[in-house]
Amino acid sequence: MTTTRRLPGAGLAPLYLAGFTTAFGAHGVGSVLGAETDDLGLSLLGLGVVLALYDVAEVVLKPLFGALSDRVGTKPVIVGGLLGFAVASLLALVQPTVLVLALARLGQGAAASAFSPASSAAVARLAGTERLGRYFGRYGAWKSLGYVLGPIIGILLAQAFDLRALYVALALLAAVAAGWVALSVPALPVRPRRRSTFLDLVRQTTDRGFLVPTMLLATSTGILGVAVGFLPLLATRLGLPAIVGAAAIAVLALVSTLVQPAAGRLRDAGRITTRTGSTAGLVSAAVALALLAVAPHPVTLVAAAAVFGAVIGVVTPLAFAHLAASTPEDRMGRTMGNAELGREAGDAGGPLLVGAVAAAWSLPAALGVLAVATAGAGVLGWVGLRPAAAAPRASGDAAGVRATGGGPGGH
Question: Keyword set for this entry (predicted)?
Answer without folding.
Answer: Cell membrane, Membrane, Transmembrane, Transmembrane helix, Transport
